[in-house]
Amino acid sequence: MTIKHFAALMLAAAAIVAASCTKTAKTTRTPAPAATPIGSFSADSAYRFIEEQVAFGPRVPGTGAHDSCANYIIDKLRAYGLDTMLIQHGTVTAYDGSQMPITNIIAGNKPHVRRRVVLAAHYDTRAWADREHDEIKSTQPIVGANDGGSGVAVLLEIARNIQLRDPEIGVDLIFFDAEDQGAPEELRGDNRGWCLGSEYWAQHREPYRSDNLPAYGILLDMVGGRDARFYYDLFSQENAPTACIKVWGEADALGYGHIFRRQLGGTIIDDHVNMTNRGIPTADVIELYNDATGSFPAYWHTHADDMSIISKSTLQMVGNTVLNVLYKEQL
Fold first, then answer.
1. CATH class label, 45-328
2. Which of 146, 167, 293, 316 is 20 to 30 A from 228, comparing alpha carbons?
């Protein structure tokens, strides 16, 4: 993913203080208790899913490590008994004009249920660490523990929970390929080549028709970093307000408002753009600094994106939030 535009905007909150000229007793308001996590999301399990992906090495499209990871995801989904499975193979054109093979993985439960929510993440990792200062290291692919591994891990752990307790609605899981193969850093400002897997998926319109689109989507990208903060993406806020309200509102109710900030971050070129344009308004949950630069964390697109920056606490809060959203949905 890359930043398309940054606009720093603080959502104002007004504090109202009431003063009385009489000598009546002051009243205090007891804060509402935090919501209770529904389901049994395990951060330990999600962490292990990241470790197993990282063990394959960099998952660059067209490599053995990438194909091994794709098979790993498919095997996990089948083991968790999801009702439907679509493996979408294709070829896309990279930023430099070369042809790139891709594999999107789409699974779901309860295919007969019309009201659905779709969750998505990308599983490929970047072919070069172009944010590294070392010239040699900058040409080497990264293992992408957070940028690639974490979103997949949370989705797999959610799949395990769905097997244990079905939500009332239908849930689809999409694992996109070739999200992170956009133009390298030296071509700054060149937005070609990003989100090719979701673009291919949107063009081929599988498995949805115009009359059976999910109500909304949630994209998880870089959701396992230590001290992560998730701000509203401007595109999500403008085009998927319902999904944003559900996710950030549930996080706030669970007591996670310190990481799910109800403030505006930047506008991100990510898979949620293609999902929204396909007719599924999708909120992007992604770690992004809300400062004057709108930058990603320091480890982004470097070799520092390894298991050392992964936080079980962050995984737990993201997982609990998304599961609560799913389990509270009604037909």
1. alpha beta
2. 167
